[in-house]
Amino acid sequence: MTSYQKSEIAELIDGKLPWHKTKAMMSAHKDDTRFDTYIAVFQDRVAWDDPILLPIGENLFIVQGADGRVVKCSCGQEYGSYKQNWKLKAHIRVRDDAQSLGEIYPGRHMCDPEWMEIREFICPGCARLLEVEAAPPGFPIVFDFEPDLETFYRDWLGKPMPERAEV
Amino acid sequence: MSERKPLVLGIDAGGTMTDTLLVDADGHFSVGKAATTPHNESEGFVESAIDAVGNWDMDLQKTFEQLSVVLYSGTGMLNTLLSRTGRRIGLIVTRGMEDAVLMGRGLQTWTDYSYPDRLHAVTHQAPDPLIPRDRVFGVTERIDQFGNVVIPFYPDEAEEAANALIAQGVEGICIVCMNSYVDDAHEQGIADLVQNVLDKHEVDIPIHLSSSVRPVIREQSRLNSTAIEAYAAAAGRDQLIGVEEAAHGQGFRYGVQTVLSYGGLAGIRYPRLHETMISGPVGGILGAKYVGDMIGSDSVIVSDMGGTSFDIAAITRGTIPIENEPTLARFKLNLPTISMESIGAGAGTIIKVDPLTKKVSLGPESAGSWPGPVAFDQGGTEPTVCDCDVIMGRLNPDYFLGGKVKLNVEKAKQVFKEKVADPLGVDIYEAAEGMANLLEMDAKDSMSQMISARAVDPHDYSLMAYGGSGPLHMAEYSRGFGFKSVLTFPFAAAFSAFGCTTADYLRRYSRSVQLTLPPDADANHRASVIASLNDVWDGLRTKAIREMGEEGHDKADVELQLFAMMRYTGQLEDVEVPLTISRVSADADLDYLVEAFDDLYAAINRPVAQYREAGHSITELGLIAKVDKIKPTLKRRPLEGQKPSSEAFKGTREMYYGGTWHEAKLWEMDLLRPGNHVEGPAVVEHPATTLVIPAGDHVWVDEWTIIHYEHAAPADSNSK
């Protein structure tokens, strides 16, 4: 079974892996260790120690925190239990008129604000744009993903969920 | 031994190995091998020649002094193209076409991919353009497809473009006008202006016109061909000149020849050197044609199984199939090429087992020659079909490449067991045979697809199996088709190099036209078609004779054969019709043209497919200019007894085949004599290849020392 160096996975995450390697990786069967290596690369990059359980965005993770499993930004900002929609605790910028939409999609590229608005979710800790969603005006904020972590770890990864190191 | 008279030296430099085939006047062959040296190919050339000459205990210098022909096909241009280390070139195109270098053709984003990768668009990627967009300039002009000037070209734009390109420091300029295949006046006019600007700035760089690359319809592939010629030919030519200097240094008296993609030889100063870039499969099919003509079989299916791929082609009634828009390094080219179909299935093909579904797949990745299969013990970690052959006792671990590579059977077994047999939960030998069968099934499928797509009847065809791994797997991949005969050769591994030595000095010239011949055409229309035909052919004839003369051939030796690309009006595919006339001198010649097409069309597609009511269209006119070259001759020898001599017998080995172990007799291929028969189970060994014969099958050697493979009669019937 193919396996990759941690440095290669880091380049993959950063989009810096040369194309021929990326292509070879896509064409091969997925390596057994990919998930663990992926997590390890992220874990090295963050300043905090809570074990990452699952990445759910480029800078957003579900981690094993002191008070249970929480959603956390790479800057350390926490959003509470992963069973709640983290977006509700982010700063939200809504683009719902021609002027603000026009900044992103000028002229004829723009959607009709009567039919669709764009919501940007920004981290209160580091001001990173964490997520963007497009929805009809009035539609509730979308809860993207509530993973079944127990089943994922037990049946798919075949291992126990990481615990916090005892302090 | 030094009585031999060396005649032809054919050298094929591949990605890893440079193969040499040395032929003497009596038709004896010597095969040499050395590592390819990409930085200076002349080193690998000389090493490989030394290896071949050494087999005959001859002096290198003396050999080169006696040789009549040295031909070399190298990798210089292809490497330059693949590594994107060619010249800095600029491009002037018809205004509106500037983005053609970026857009390319859709299929360039997935060509050469495996089937799953083709389906998954995420893996698709356009090749990096050879010319960045900021070195592309448009000039307003348009000649329509009938040759009418719709917009004259704008000289100020052409001059502006030339100035801008000079400012950018280009080393060559390509000019591609959209319909220049009809009339090259605008390309020529722009070129003159550009040349003036260059002269004014005292810049000396080449200008390449698409119409002189090949005046044929389809601007994208014409653009690609022109760009590749400008981009990569210079570096390739430098390598070839190095090889020629090395040959002269050894006492060779003539010019070194190189091989064109459609099977001709050309001197290394040939102006369209990109035509030598696809020469890999050319040799094999030329060799097959040559052997086929000799043994009286004009329809041949050729199959070449090497380490990385399985290539097949069909020669039908003496006609070698030509593909007019091949792909090279993921660029669609405007270049007639001997057409072969290729799948990624060879002995070095890597076996993968999906960890979740346990589905087995072969390739298309190959272990190559480095690190190679696990059994090579050079660090290869992925099991290959070659490892299966080793595990099953079909390959001799002490006689691979004549013993130069010792095969590590235990290691092959261990890795194969761990990565394939155990995950599948089957016995190691059963699994190994299953993998070999998968490879053979892939090969067989590709052959039956070709056979059914071309509607050829296998009974009319001889199958020739060559390449290092062809004889190893031919028993199964040729079984059940009912070919007229199944043949292989003692020099199977160097058959491509052999084929190159049978080539003539040959050029193709052609031009796109749009001529129609409705069934009820009146005399006036027919007369105008005749005038157009003669006009185009005369132009091509003049050019052909001039260029052949420039290469040093006597103009009187140049044989010309005309051809026309024709179709029934409204159809989408052309048929290349070879013609025996030298000019259209009467109305009856037009009928001859039509009949020649109808006959060929019927031969390819069955008479019922003819559609004369639609009338005929002529899309391209061309001619082939040929000068004969000295060729090797296979020696005809008297047939001896059926029983091979005792010195050919090498003992026995346990071989796994059909789910059980057999005691296979081992024979040395080079010591089998004409007339000899060998019954399976047996393995016939050669330093460069291995022929496996299962129980029930047998082979015999004919008077040309060609090995004929005969399968056991199928169990359910005794007739074919």
Distance between the termini of chain B: 46 Å
Number of helices of chain A: 5
Indicate the multimeric state.
Answer: heterodimer
> Ranges of chain B with pLDDT <50 over ≥5 residues?
none
Return the CATH architecture of the largest domain in chain B: 3-Layer(aba) Sandwich
Instruction: Give the N-to-C terminal Cα separation of chain A.
Output: 37 Å
Helicity of chain B, in percent?
25-40%
Number of domains of chain B: 6
Helix content of chain A: 25-40%
Order of helices and strands of chain A: HHHEEEEEHEEH
Mean pLDDT of chain B: 90
Largest sheet of chain B: 8 strands, mixed
CATH topology of the largest domain in chain B: Rossmann fold
Question: What is the total tally of β strands of chain B?
Answer: 34
Instruction: Give the strand content of chain A.
Output: 15-25%
Q: Keywords, please?
A:
heterodimer, A: 167 residues, alpha+beta, 3-stranded antiparallel sheet, 7 strands, B: 720 residues, Nucleotidyltransferase, domain 5, Rossmann fold, 8-stranded mixed sheet, 4-stranded mixed sheet, 31% helix, globular
Molecular structure report:
The complex is a heterodimer of chains A (about 170) and B (about 725). Chain A is an alpha+beta fold and about 170 residues long. Among the domains of chain A are: about 1-45, no CATH class; about 90-135, no CATH class. Chain A has helices at about 5-15, 20-25, 35-45, 100-105, 150-155, and strands spanning about 50-55, 60-65, 70-75, 80, 90-95, 115-120, 130-135. In chain A, helix 1 (about 5-15) crosses helix 3. The longest helix of chain A is centred in the N-terminal third of the chain and has 12 residues, at about 35-45. The two termini of chain A are about 35 Å apart. The model of chain B has no long low-confidence stretch (mean pLDDT about 90). In chain B, a hairpin with a 2-residue loop joins strand 28 and strand 29 (about 660-670). In chain B, helix 3 packs across helix 9 (about 220-250), helix 11 (about 385-390) crosses helix 12 (about 410-425) and helix 12 (about 410-425) packs across helix 13. In chain B, about 30% of the residues lie in helices and about 25% in strands. Chain B has six domains: about 5-80 and about 235-275, 2-Layer Sandwich (Nucleotidyltransferase, domain 5), CATH 3.30.420; about 85-230, Rossmann fold (3-Layer(aba) Sandwich), CATH 3.40.50; about 280-345 and about 445-500, Nucleotidyltransferase, domain 5, CATH 3.30.420; about 350-440, no CATH class; about 505-625, no CATH class; about 645-710, no CATH class. Chain B has about 725 residues and is α+β, with helices and mostly antiparallel strands. The radius of gyration of chain B is 27 Å and the shape is globular. An eight-stranded mixed β-sheet of chain B has the order 19-14-13-22-23-34-33-30, with helices on both faces. A four-stranded mixed β-sheet of chain B has the order 3-2-1-4, sandwiched between helices. In chain B, strands 6-5-9-10 form a four-stranded parallel β-sheet, sandwiched between helices.
